[in-house]
Amino acid sequence: MELYFIRHGQSINNVNWKNSEYTEHPDPFLTEVGVEQAEYLAKYLKEQQHITKPEAWNIQNRYGFGFTHIYSSLMERAVATAAPTVRALGDVPFTAWTDIHEEGGIYSREKEVEVKGLPGRPRSFFEQNFPEIKLPEGLDESGWWNRPFETLEERQSRADKVFAELLARHGDKEGQPEERIALVSHGGFFVRFLSAMIKLPWRQGAHDMKSWFLLNNCSISRFDIRKDEILISYINRTDHLPAHLISG
Predict the structure, then answer these.
(1) The domain 2-69+77-184+199-245: what is its CATH number?
(2) The pLDDT of residue 10
(3) Alpha carbons 221 and 53: distance in angstroms, whole number
């Protein structure tokens, strides 16, 4: 399996993260920059979808991507990032994967510290705005989250579960063609997911420093997952975006 992790485009929270006067949005939408990033991503992936040299060593995707499945979290910024690519490619299955959401879930902050879980977008929102996505059968008008704030203790186990489920769904199987999977997700979840894949201690670096894997908006990271090996092919690739659209 080839796995591609794509971070969402710039959100209204991203652009305001240093603004002390800004009230954090519980499910932030894309900014104009974020929309443009998603459009560039879609154009690039459409141009590179077809694999032109199937027998060539294509570790940098110089000969195409050949996506077979695209998944997105149900946070608005992720679905809005994935949708232009899905529309551009036309025939790649597009499915919601609830568990690849960002850390914490859908919540609001109260009094700077306290957090309160919120419903999340209802089924009708996705059907009206992103009809291409296959939604969970149980999603109704009450919203997709409807849970308390996700605790620190729950986060790594969720990433572990996602990786195990990914292998079960799309791991290489003898006699079947290799699958090429795109997850459109979030920066915080990426670090948890990477920790799940290669068994890294969470944020632990040398000399008591804290580690972090930075992802820019609409960046692409690739992992080749074989029967007995995980190859980290590249992380945080942004050469499909013009310089003025590189954002964190």
Answers:
(1) 3.40.50.1240
(2) 98
(3) 21
